[in-house]
Design a protein that fits this description.
This protein is an alpha+beta fold and 223 residues long. The chain contains six helices and eleven strands. The strands form three sheets. Strands 2-3-1-4-5-9-6 form a seven-stranded mixed beta sheet, with helices on both faces. The protein has a two-stranded antiparallel sheet with strand order 7-8. The radius of gyration is 18 Å and the shape is globular.
């Protein structure tokens, strides 16, 4: 299973850690582009990558890889924060907002979509941030890819654990259950609509509370 992996990576100390992965893409960019003018697509991608990379870094994440209009990022890899899941969702919302005015080579408006998933992954201990550094588990990216497929253009979708960890920080709307592309499991997803008007207590992956304590009024509002 390690065929093709650098020997330095195989020798490095590994650990399993809860990380949050973010996957972003631009539906319609390639299909709306004139194949005779590939440079125009390159210009759009350059602007897109710069915006997305800057936002991810600003929220404490690191870009793991880029492939055309797909950008994969990880939160909780080189630097671990107690609110990495929340940071990833906020980054996703900022991405779709800041790219609102992006247009394709044909002048049509493009809307990014984002998927966020939290789970345990195999990582290199002490890995530095940067493309391809530290994340050894393709499953983490695969789950984010499954979730992003549920997100309408211009929106952010999150997986079950991300939603549970950030339920007090954002308003969510449930989405249809998805089929995992790698097996027969069913994957639940939620649409992140906006930061909650009155943030309630929320939890880290290790069960630590973050934010102000919930009030009786919050409990009534949660239904």
């Amino acid at each position: 299973m390690d065929c093709g992996t650098l020997l330095t990576a195989l020798a490095a100390p590994r650990e399993r850690r809860v990380v949050t992965t973010l996957l972003c893409d631009l539906p319609g960019l390639i299909s709306s582009s004139d194949p005779a003018h590939p440079g125009e697509v390159t210009d759009v991608l350059r602007e897109y990558h710069a915006v997305v990379g800057g936002i991810i870094g600003g929220f404490g994440g690191s870009v793991d890889r880029t492939d055309g209009d797909d950008v994969a990022a990880v939160f909780g890899l080189s630097v671990v924060h107690r609110d990495d899941a929340e940071r990833a969702v906020r980054a996703g919302l900022r991405i779709v907002d800041d790219l609102e005015g992006l247009t394709g080579p044909d002048g049509a408006r493009l809307k990014a979509r984002v998927g966020v998933s939290t789970g345990e992954a195999l990582v290199l201990r002490g890995a530095a941030s940067g493309p391809g550094n530290g994340l050894l588990d393709e499953w983490a990216i695969s789950m984010a890819a499954c979730v992003v497929a549920a997100a309408p253009p211009g929106h952010v979708a999150v997986g079950a654990l991300t939603q549970r960890l950030t339920a007090g920080a954002f308003d969510y709307e449930s989405l249809p259950v998805l089929s995992n592309r790698r097996d027969s499991d069913r994957v639940a997803a939620w649409l992140a609509k906006a930061p909650a008007a009155r943030p309630r207590v929320r939890w880290t992956a290790r069960g630590h509370a973050v934010g102000r304590p919930a009030t009786p009024a919050d409990a009534r509002g949660a239904g």
